[in-house]
Structures are given as structure tokens and as C-alpha cells.
Design a protein that fits this description.
By secondary structure, this protein is of the alpha+beta class. The protein has helices spanning 3-17, 23-32, 36-51, 63-73, 78-86, 88-100, 248-251, 265-276, 302-313; strands at residues 116-120, 127-130, 136-139, 144-148, 156-167, 176-179, 184-187, 191-196, 202-209, 212-215, 221-225, 229-234, 240-244, 257-264, 279-283, 291-297, 316-320, 328-332. It is 30% helix and 30% strand.
Length: 340
């Protein structure tokens, strides 16, 4: 490539990085961005960025010292240095980007973009997945979970809508974070349970072992949890409740069991809806306030569990089987009204 053509190429590359191209130049760059010459220029730019990253750690701001440092670091790339200096309208902003570590636009890293997988569970389904770092995740019914095929070296980040339990592989250098619509959980290695269904009024994090930080989506700390602590946050009011709990009641679902201790029937109904993919209605105002204790085993027929409730708590139920929509269960304390 001729020198004038090479200079023009670098002018376009450097200008693109800092949004300094006019419409004609931008159109010209789009035509050549997939060529080997441009790809090589991009790679050299990235190498320079990491070469001079050490200047980030110079404690005292000293322009002359910083310039000497950067100059020494890129001395192996004289052509680039001359071009940066020559095209002075980009030089200052380019060097500042190198000093403070401004992220180079995503198109520079096209070959290194993080690829995400997505799991969407129907009601009645459960699943497990092992992430690239060895972290194990149990997913409850009706959950949507997004995770990268391979984590990068800066952070381990996943996205959750639903309920999941995480056993995170310990790594003090690379934090692990769970992003939800209601908040973010950050850890380095620990076991915890997250309930964050889109339609639930509460966002609940229960720590089984280790330590976790819970933040809102603006990065404001809500709590640092220790083992056996649970934080629940009302999504509508923002009210938080931090308490000690028996974690078995919030983690046993991964073994196909739900432990109940003086649990309101209305709360139990939410679990049954998700596990059995049914609709549940109550007949009578106080039916949902009946308190239930015991154990539910997933895999057992719903009808069997309802018969136990009938004998132990004096309730009545009607199971309506539908061919074209969800089955429905009607539960009442007194005699149920006649079916339609």
C-alpha cells in the first residue's frame, strides 16, 4: 500500500474511533472496514491501548512524564506515532483515551463479542445449567435465564427473570453478578437463592453460604448478606425487610421438595401454579389465609396433595380438566358452589 493511502487509512481508523469523521469519510470507512489492512490497523490500535495502560497507574498528573511514558511504550510502532502526531485534531483525544482506558467502540471487538445463551422454562418445568466457570445454576419453573457461552476476564454476568439458586465458583479477581429487573446481586463465590419473577410483588435474595451484596439497578447498596440472612424488597413501595431464616425452606425446591411451616394457602397456591401449570381460585374470603405445614414432593400428582389438604385442613377442592387451556383448581373451606 502506498504511503498516502496508508495515511488515509489511519486517518479513517483514528477518526472512526473518536467519532470525528464527516458523512463522506464515514461512508468511505464503511466500505473498507472489513479489509485486512483495516483489521490490522485496528489490532495495532488495540495493542497500543494495552501497551500504554500502565500510564493509568501514574499517581501524580504530570503531562510531560505521561507523554514520555506513552512515547516509550509505542516506540515500537513509529508509523502509528507519526500519524497520531501528524493528525493533530485527533492526537489529544486519542492519547487521553489511552491514558484513562476509554472503551474502544464495540465494532473493534467484533470477533470477541460475548455470545449469550437463553433458557426459557414453561410453567411446570425445572432445569439446571453449568456455566463456563463451573458455576452451577438451578432454574425453577417459568424462569428465563440468559448467560454467556464463555465469561470474559473482567466479570461474570448473567440475567434472571424468575427463580434460581446459584452455587458460584470462587474467584476473587472476577466478580459474579446476577442482574434482575429489580436489582443486582454481586458475589465472588457463594451459594444463594434469588426469587425475581416479573409479576411477583417481592424481590427476594436468600444467602445459604458465603456473602453477597445486593444493589438496586442504580448501583445503590441495599444490603450485605451473611449466611442464613434474607432480604425481601417490595417492588412497588421499595420497602425492605432483612431477617434470619431457615434456608432449607428456600432452597429445598432444587431437590423437588417444598418445606412448609405455617405457610398461607394463598402463598402455597403460587408455588403449585408454577409447579403444576394450573390456575387456582379460592372460594370464600378467608380460604387463602389457611395456614399449612408439611412437605410437597414434586412428581407426585397434584390431586394426591389436594386430597391430603382436604383430610388435614377440612378444605374442599374441585379439579377442572381443560382440553384447550390450563386445568383449574377451585379450593374452598365450606361446600363449593355447583360447577357451571
Amino acid at each position: 500500500m502506498k504511503k498516502t493511502e496508508n495515511n488515509k487509512l489511519w486517518k479513517l481508523v483514528i477518526g472512526k474511533i473518536h467519532n470525528g469523521l464527516n458523512a463522506d469519510e464515514d461512508a468511505e470507512f464503511e466500505k473498507i472496514k472489513e479489509t485486512e489492512e483495516v483489521k490490522e490497523a485496528i489490532q495495532q490500535t488495540v495493542r497500543i491501548r494495552f501497551k500504554v495502560f500502565g500510564s493509568f497507574f501514574i499517581r501524580k498528573i504530570d503531562k510531560e512524564k505521561n507523554w514520555k511514558y506513552i512515547n516509550s511504550q509505542i516506540s515500537h510502532y513509529p508509523e502509528i506515532l507519526k500519524l497520531i502526531v501528524h493528525f493533530s485534531r485527533y492526537a489529544a483525544v486519542f492519547l487521553m483515551a489511552l491514558i484513562i482506558g476509554v472503551t474502544i467502540p464495540r465494532w473493534l471487538y467484533k470477533s470477541h463479542e460475548v455470545t449469550y445463551n437463553k433458557i426459557e422454562l414453561e410453567w411446570g418445568q425445572m432445569s439446571t445449567v453449568t456455566l463456563s466457570d463451573g458455576t452451577k445454576v438451578w432454574l425453577n419453573a417459568g424462569t428465563t435465564f440468559e448467560y454467556p457461552t464463555t465469561f470474559d476476564t473482567q466479570k461474570r454476568s448473567v440475567i434472571l427473570d424468575g427463580e434460581a439458586q446459584f452455587k458460584v465458583t470462587h474467584n476473587t479477581k472476577v466478580p459474579f453478578e446476577v442482574k434482575t429487573k429489580s436489582g443486582i446481586i454481586k458475589v465472588y463465590g457463594t451459594t444463594f437463592n434469588v426469587e425475581s419473577y416479573r409479576d411477583d410483588k417481592l424481590f427476594v435474595v436468600t444467602l445459604i453460604e458465603g456473602k453477597v451484596s445486593v444493589e438496586d439497578n442504580n448501583g445503590i447498596s441495599l444490603a450485605i448478606l451473611n449466611p442464613s440472612e434474607q432480604i425481601s424488597i417490595n417492588k412497588l413501595t421499595g420497602e425492605t425487610n432483612l431477617r434470619k431464616v431457615n434456608t432449607a425452606f428456600f432452597s429445598s425446591w432444587i431437590d423437588g421438595k417444598i418445606l412448609l411451616e405455617d405457610t398461607k394457602l394463598s402463598d402455597l397456591a403460587i408455588i403449585l401454579k408454577r409447579w403444576y401449570n394450573v390456575d387456582i381460585d379460592f372460594a370464600g374470603e378467608n380460604t387463602g389465609n389457611i395456614r399449612i405445614s408439611g412437605t410437597i414432593i414434586k412428581g407426585k400428582p397434584l390431586d394426591l396433595f389436594l386430597k391430603v389438604l382436604e383430610r388435614m385442613y377440612g378444605i374442599e377442592y374441585r379439579l377442572i380438566v381443560n382440553a384447550d387451556k390450563k386445568d383449574k383448581v377451585i379450593i374452598g373451606k365450606n361446600k363449593l358452589p355447583m360447577a357451571d
